[in-house]
Amino acid sequence: MPALQPFTKLCQFLNRPRTAGRADLHVHTTASDGLYTPAEVINLARRSGLAAVAITDHDTLDALPAAQAAAQGSSVDVVPGVEITAELDGHELHLLGYFMSLNDGPLNAALSRLREHREDRFWGMVERLRRFGVSVDKDALQDEAERGVLSRRNLAVHLVKMGEAGSVREAFQRFLGDNGRATVPKVRLPVAEAIRLVRGAGGLASWAHPSGQCTRESLLTLRALGLHAVEAYYPSFKKKWTQQLCDWAGELGLAVTGGSDCHGPDQPSRAIGTCSLAAEEWEMLRQLASADELVGGRG
Fold first, then answer.
1. Which CATH fold topology does 22-111+188-298 show?
2. Which of 88, 207, 268, 278 is the most exposed place for a label (fewest CB within 10 A)?
3. What is the residue extent of each domain of the chain?
């Protein structure tokens, strides 16, 4: 994979203005744990002046046809995306896939298995909550399950509606955090398999919201497995961390991605378009996505 320079220089624009050509490459819809429909996402992206938005629902591509239909005739480019729950050295790692074929068999089969595990996990947490005496409306949750992929966030929102928590944050703190008393462990794909699936579908793989486990060495490891990019722009990142990620990306020939990780209107700091790639960075990513090695994988 050719080195994409000069990412380090581009990453200096940390306070870049809102100009045409920006891309928000991390948005969720009602197809997973978001509160906006695909059409609502496209409308908000258009109103935010975005050139492109990536629908990156957890372990599903289901929202993309509706998003693409809603974007027809608009100035917004819909980037096919997905966020896959993966694992590196025993730690959870989220992998963003972009530009994949929506009809790729191996990728869709793997995502289907992850959704099945996610559903089993969700209902396992519901049963744990009921054993603890927490009020849960299973009929309402079943209706919601028929409309999308359920997650801890959906369950947290439900607990707020039931009066069992004052906020989504409180629901996670009391019941649903990583070590919460109602939490059931996730099933995670080995990151090598996740990257292989994305690449096999003609896609580009990026490490989502990398935290403390991200080092230059871990990026080297993932680059050797086929990683294309790292998400350097993210709402909760401090400028110093963004700069470090950009520097590593420049040194290692990785691209950078970024996005709001919007899940709905309840988190204003993660509204669509509040965190994005500048036009220059988006164009570089588009050029990488059109490289022969990716296009050839799309069939």
1. TIM Barrel (3.20.20)
2. 268
3. 22-111+188-298, 118-176
